[in-house]
Automatic annotation (TrEMBL), chains A, B, C, D:
Domain spans labelled Acyl-CoA dehydrogenase/oxidase N-terminal: 12-126
Family membership: Belongs to the acyl-CoA dehydrogenase family.
Official protein name in the record: Acyl-CoA dehydrogenase family protein
Domain Acyl-CoA dehydrogenase/oxidase C-terminal: 243-395
Cofactor(s) of this protein: FAD
Highest taxon of the lineage: Bacteria
Length: 400, 400, 400, 400
């Protein structure tokens, strides 16, 4: 199971509390949770959130004034791994994507009014939010092409556009939408802005929860296709300045990728644990468990090695991001994105094979992760884009 | 798209008829079919079956006397690839697993009464059947361990046992069950027998359709967990002799693996086609399709190479099996099982990556195959077992 | 060991004769041959050539009138596999690259005088030849860039240029050189010609035998860096027409890649045999050979599968080339080039690992092939170029 | 190039000195050094050693009293990476295997007399040494099987045995030999002892320098097959106690694997640098360098990621070994052994492919490392053994 490695005693105790919560409260129920429609689970999830609050574990990423634990990036990363072991771990503690990214964004760049109206209820876990960026008509891997427009009209923006993969839109209170406000800007990176849109705004519609990998999707566990048709919001719902959309997106994505990667490592650890347990308990012949097969042993060894490599790389990146800022670790962020996504899928795949037929049923979490995390190699930039981008950055130093 | 390579003119024309049927009748509807509960689709599926019959394309594997086309293994293999391009292709033509295996078995080893009662209605497509072998309590990769018992009691067998992954049990008329009849036989391979059990027999129950990879499963598209509790059937429902279970299973599996492999190649071709289409139509920048990226090109080239290798290997095996019998190609059967299953999953995985976010939605067939065919590396013997078995067979020639 | 699969009785007997020769005459000496300077081995090699002649096995690719056996491409491919099992197999039978390519070229396109002077002595094995194409200053993967010039001056060409990887130049009687004769041609593919240069021509010099992978190289087993400085040859030494260089090169390369691929498969078979022998004889504990380890078994199974796939693909390509010509199988030629080169290196690598420390010594042929065949993924077009070229050819069919 | 990451200023300056020395003194000459017979290079190597001494950089691993720099394991590991960039880097600074292992062993376990006679001259770089363990008759991966015997006879041991892969025996002053002294010990791990044998002892003979990967081998760059025939040495040449051979070997191997892994990472960095330089300078078309190809970019990105992962894992292991001792990091040592050896071979292989034909010549260091480091996956325990051993250690925690 996930190794707790901090050398600070207090923090170590905190990590142990999270681990205990996750093991005792979530592990016995999480398979049931992911196979039940989301809205049906909400009462139970709210109970767990209350418990998390009463134990002082809620919202670890927020400052203490904001009702959180004030953990820095490096510490939160370690909590994120622990929570990642259970599919709804982050949700229980209100540090789940996309809400956490929206909180960070509004915390750093939101106006006082935006904070009052959107951030604080979000922090308290009273509402959910989403983020509308990807468009079906354009390759998500090259976000500079975007058709959604937000036109200033007096004190309002009038938004028209078509988005999809708007995670958790179903039941969310508001979205942040990326829209072109400055189509004539010099750089394609200066054309778009981020604007808050409450989801009860006229003209907004959720066309469908996109069925993904065999699941209809619902509530927090959904990815929607949404439409903005002459959707009017106050101009004051703009975050930051016009044209800052991509700059803010980078700010949002940097730590976001750390969180994701650590969550993936949490999944890896849970899956690794299942693989080892199965290898020892499944017998090919009486007294001859699968674990005696060298192929199984090598899968276990290679998985352990690559999980360890993943954790060291992500933690190294988190430390450097904390010390030197997101820009300084741009190469490292690309590196961990493709490296860990690949490890994640390999470890899940091996665990399925070790489980045999059981591994493809919905009787274990393996099926859930095999399906839900296939996207890890695609979202937040396909691995291929990150590899090319890393290489080009390295090769710049070699141009004469 | 699937290449039609026969040099016999008549047969080539037949293949073209199948290809035309599949492209015109199935491709436009197959995504809808796999996302609709099975029983709801039955009327439409029956229409297609009637059409197949009226075109003289029904049951290609059966002899003409039995209402089929009388294709030999090599020819049927080529048809199987074409049908494999659509998830319900084999079903429409009544040559789908597990029914086809049961037909072959009863055709070769069934008594006159068994044929009358079970085989002929199956051949006409009036009923469905299933095959109960794998048990949750034992590793499927080592089938000699089996707890299901059939005890002779007068003119009946009394069957007790617990099976799962009984494909298509939901709605089937009968199953063939593997059960231990001779627990004291010398060889573990001589303990089990195959017995027919009509599914309305008292004591039989379908505990559940096992949810697999996010799908509840229904009707033909289900894999059930079933129970036999003091289930009594006439002794005349025994197929062949007592103790012949494994011998018959080998007979059943040999051609079955050829069919599966060719079906997988059909999937590969359809998926390959989708990958190329997407690569040419998705633009990263205006006029710059994904297809210009060298990584995409290499995935296409490597996929083409490995699909070609797969087809040549399976057809070579089919030819040799037809000439020399199943025993002579035991090594080749193991070889194609693991080789083609691996190619299949790789091609699907690459096609998903080329489709980006769309690839993980249920808006294309990729998600269906990614999930349903993950089992290909597990069922009919995990790849690891086939590899070891092939190697041991080769190494025998090196023992001094 | 290499499987002999022809169904024609006479030809099967011929293949068995080759196999017997190779096993009895070459296997006992070939390790010694590759670790001895080439010129020192010449007397022994000549003895073997005489024996091959006296057995009627010499020059299988040549027509009977030309002193050969008149095998077609498909048959010669099978002989090539057998000869490939020993590093000097092709040499003994005078069907080794680059001589065989030069023979084919002169046979098809040489003038009567060229044949008299160059082809016939080559066919009789009295002289050796080479082929000068690659230049150190240009990427070999894009041969249209070439600096070597041949300028017509009266009845002569005056050649200036710098070439390398001119295989077997050391001791050869003549080379065929690719040189630009028509720098202003419309297409870059029409600028170059092929011209014969006897190596005693003034102005030609062998700068060095390029040391490759730890070996100085000598005689037939060398790759030279050569220079042409105002090297004058009669205009009648032009092969074909001016500007036909690339057209002829394609003619030369097509069957050449079949030969290479079959030779690689021969190496694979020999190496596979060594791997199995070692796995059975090396004990980890008394009575417990390496072969009981599942990893070793899987290497053996995967190697067998991919060697089989390779052979089927190359033979399929050879058959189609024979039936339909080289142009019709352009995609297949690219496919086998990268597929088989990859398999070759994998099989060698696994065999080394199975041999442990012995595998890296020069006490077996593994070290020779590991080093000499690393080039297989580079020469005749790097694998990456063939993959892209195959993909682009496929994708053309998808352009709207 | 190798990143210098220490945060201590003095140590950072020291690393920079090493880097400067390596770049200025070794890089310009190292290709020449590895293609010249060793003994011919000795005068030049001695010059460099003198220079290293005069700069205060000699023997970084030794304590200051012993003429070294007193670097701890973590610091020395970083130096080791820098030295690893050049094939003779460690040799110049007298911290090369096998001498460094012998120094550590004698330092920790040698008697006063042993130190005087063997250790101090070795530390001063006046003599070389070697280590005789592997035997041709037994699988090196299971060292408990050993035929070499040392029988106590009065005040002497009489040693008989046959060893190979005795690295650097050619020209060494003494070897440490592993020999069975207690054949009847309870545990196979308590049968062997380590004994010093001066190489001028009667009965010792160097049968040959084993030719490896195309090189005869000479002096320090050799691996010998040696024989001990009634070789008599004083009983006082026993290191530690009788039966402690394996215990001492573990002590020797622990830090040794850290050194090796960091050396491999140094090679990776040099090779990575060559790959990038080549990718930018080699043009496929005018102005279109290889570096624009996505495949090349991905090789660069994947290499950078895996080199980074390697360094973090090895440094993490070094830190923990330093804090908690070798036993506590047994799993980690196995992990880095197979992980880094694999990365090393992949990076070298990609760099060769990027260099095209040049990559297989001896005109760059790539050929040297491709050949010399293939052993990395074999020596110090084949990767397969380390993987199984790691897995078994992990799985112990899962046994009920």
């Amino acid at each position: 199971m996930t190794q707790i490695t901090s050398t600070e005693e207090n923090f170590t105790q905190l990590l142990q509390k999270y681990q205990k919560f996750v093991e005792e409260k979530l592990f016995p129920r999480d398979l049931e949770l992911v196979t039940t429609p989301f809205f049906q689970s909400v009462p139970f999830l709210n109970e767990l959130r209350s418990e998390a609050k009463s134990l002082g574990l809620f919202a670890p990423h927020l400052s203490k004034e904001e009702g959180g634990l004030g953990l820095d990036l490096v510490k939160f990363a370690q909590v994120s791994e622990i929570l990642g072991q259970s599919p709804l771990g982050h949700y229980i503690f209100n540090c789940n994507a996309p809400d956490i990214g929206n909180m960070e964004l509004l915390h750093l760049f939101g106006s006082k009014e935006q904070k009052e109206q959107f951030l604080y209820p979000l922090q308290r876990g009273e509402i959910r939010s989403c983020f509308a960026m990807t468009e079906p008509g354009h390759a998500g891997s090259n976000p500079i092409h975007m058709s959604t427009l937000a036109v200033r009209d007096g004190d309002e923006y009038v938004i028209n556009g078509h988005k999809w993969f708007t995670t958790a839109a179903d039941g969310a209170a508001f979205t942040i939408v990326m829209a072109v406000t400055n189509p004539n800007a010099d750089s394609p990176y200066q054309k778009a802005s981020m604007i808050i849109v409450p989801l009860d705004t006229a003209g907004y519609s959720n066309l469908r929860n996109i069925p993904i990998m065999g699941e209809p999707g619902e509530g927090y566990l959904s990815h929607s296709e949404v439409k903005f048709e002459n959707c009017r919001v106050p101009a004051s719902y703009l975050i930051g300045q016009e044209g800052q959309g991509f700059v803010l997106a980078q700010e949002r994505l940097g730590p976001g990728r750390i969180h994701h990667c650590m969550r993936w490592i949490g999944i890896c650890e849970r899956v690794f644990d299942m693989m080892c347990t199965r290898a020892m308990s499944r017998e090919l012949n009486p007294g001859k468990p699968l674990a005696e097969k060298q192929t199984i042993q090598h899968w276990i060894a290679e998985s352990r090695a690559s999980i360890k490599a993943s954790r060291l790389m992500v933690m190294d990146t988190a430390q450097n991001m904390q010390l030197k800022g997101a820009k300084a670790v741009k190469e490292d962020i690309s590196t961990i994105k493709f490296f860990v996504a690949d490890v994640l899928m390999q470890v899940i795949d091996r665990a399925i094979q070790v489980h045999g037929a059981l591994g493809i049923t919905d009787d274990t979490l393996l099926s859930f992760w095999y399906r839900h995390e296939r996207g890890a190699r695609i979202y937040d930039g396909p691995d291929e884009v990150h590899k090319s981008s890393l290489a080009r950055s390295i090769l710049k130093k070699y141009s004469s």
